[in-house]
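> @MW can you paste both from yesterday?
MW: sure, first one:
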Amino acid sequence: MHFHGIAWTHSAGTPAHNGSRDLVRLVPSGAEATKTETATVVVIEKRALVRECLTRCLKGASGHTIISFPSVDSWLEACDDIAACLIVLCIVGKPNDPEPHREICRLAQAANRLPTIIVADVDDPDQIVDALDSGARGYVPTSAPLEVVVEVMRLVKAGGVYVPASSLLAARRPSDGTASPQGSNGMFTKRQAAVVEALRRGKANKIIAYELNMRESTVKVHIRNIMKKLKARNRTEVAFITNEMLHAQNRGAG
């Protein structure tokens, strides 16, 4: 996701940086916090630069009032004084990792439970399902453009649920009738199997990323993991080894 601006935001009780000017006072601090300054959307993101950029971008693109917090704890401390209607929770890592999973569940179980959208780097279907099972109402990978995030906000605010269909369809996309390396004793995940199939066809990382709707950096991670599993030194060996695996499967099936 690309960001085009920076806004200084402070959660309740957090002092301004020394020597800096409070450019956008989105959340009043201390005794100034009142219900007269209400918020439409809450952004929770622990990385300061990403938080400030995302806050400004969402405000400009959606027209909503946006407030931001560095953690779920800081939001829950201030939530009684803020009339919010939606939460955008940014996840670093996988949604089913212990800390992100705990944060999603805490928001879902809070007394003032609000519909929550997850924004995460991971777009694996299993991870998406885990996030929804934990209480999220929407899931947007960071590979999506800003306009998609804004539309998802509107949908979830209206009571809908959003998942990236392209990610789910990519995971279910069949090959051309040949066996899949995923069938070899469960060696590969669905996403890895899709990458292996693309490598067998000699496709470049950029093409694989486009066709499977993932980042090129994610494709590289999958390829490294595939090479480790196969003890291959490069992508050419991956293609050779997996071709042999498929031939062996086909002979066994025959």
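MW: second:
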Amino acid sequence: MRFTTTAILIVLAAPAACGVPAAEGNSVRRGDRAFAQQDYKEALAEYRLAVRQGAADGATLARVAHTYAILGRVDDAGAYYQEAAARDSAFADEAVSDLMRMAREALARNDRFAMATAVETALRMRPGVGVGRMALPLARHYFKAGEYGRALPFYQKAMAEASDSTPDIVFEVGQAYEEIGDCTNALVFFERFRTMVRPWQRGEVDWYIGTCSFRMSTERFQQALKLTDPDEREAAMGEALALVERAIEVGEPRSIQAEAWFQRGEILAETGDCQGAMEAYAQVRYADVAGTGPLVDRAQKAFDEIRFGRGLEKLRGGRCR
């Protein structure tokens, strides 16, 4: 339920009359009269006076909180509501109702900071409270603020409630995952976005796909080199190869294409595909921006080691170098 003028005057009147010392009780009663007359600033002044005079019961604190809410002061309302609920848990539901009303009103006037503040406080008091159509605005508020971890749960709520997510939402979710370092989930959304747009709209998402794929390939390749179980090693090498080939396939970012071809060669050399490794090393020169960088020299050296040392392949356990 929500606080109303009647609730303030009737539901909360009894504690003021019974459990509050005379001076504080007088302030509360004057506050109630001012509130009934919709003189909220005067009511707030009296309620706060009662608190300063020692009234620390939940009902008085809730009066202060609700009056702040009427005046649109989200931070103050939230702080007093939390204190009131800490004194008496019966005020938690009223607090959450008031806070969510403030959040909806803030959304209506496009004040996303106030909306987020109200929802955050409500969620601290009732973690499972639903946010309804505020999910996407909340997600984008946190996204724009660089708080990607906080944005993701709201994006998930928004997508769960939508019959069909729009491409921009899917792309933003991918970006949020990429920003927190979760390329595995990021790639799922980037690849999904890629199928939703036309080829000439894929430039930016291809950059993200290539970046994440190459990063994950590098990590998986390094892990594979440390594995001793043949089956686990083979599976890990296969994953690393598929990822780096995806980075090469999308061709982005262009600045890492030479590294991607070199890594493909390294993986193939480790798995014993000597011809494939040589072909990959040979591509490094063409993918390198300058065509004469240190990676080109390393690729040529690796190419030559395979080309002129292939007679020893069996002695190397299937490895090309």
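> thanks! The chain has 17 helices and no strands.
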